[in-house]
Amino acid sequence: MVLGDNKGEPNKRAFRKLVKSGQVHACIAFAVDTPVGWCCIGPRQTFPRLERVKALQTKWDENTWSVVCFYIRAGFRHQGVATRLLKSAVLLARTLGAKRLEGYPVQPSRSGSGEIPAAFAWTGVQELFKRQRFVNISLPESTRDIYVKTFRHTKR
Q: Domains in the chain, start-ordered, CATH in brackets?
């Protein structure tokens, strides 16, 4: 089952099945009782496409997690929902033992407008990761950005 091959309801059902099976995790944002956004996160090895895309390959291990997509319902965009979802994803990854969390935001267009249409921003935008103190480890010539946050786990 691969997310992204479908749109709308089939993708929602596939995502729900992955989350329920424990293969991936999700942070979900609600406005009262209505879901208005989600963020998909999990151990990097659960997302094999990351290894098939040359621009997204990194030196990772079993303690590396990835934030692979965001969805914010129209009408709730530009209101900080993605920021709150990423904060929750960081906390979730750290709580579940991740030592490193990667994100793959889309780069702004080279035209200089800076505005990225929602349909293309499903992996997040650079500013979102920068605000959460992720570090850009991308090579200058790369067509994709890779942002990383490293956790120091303290013994309790």
A: 26-150 (3.40.630.30)
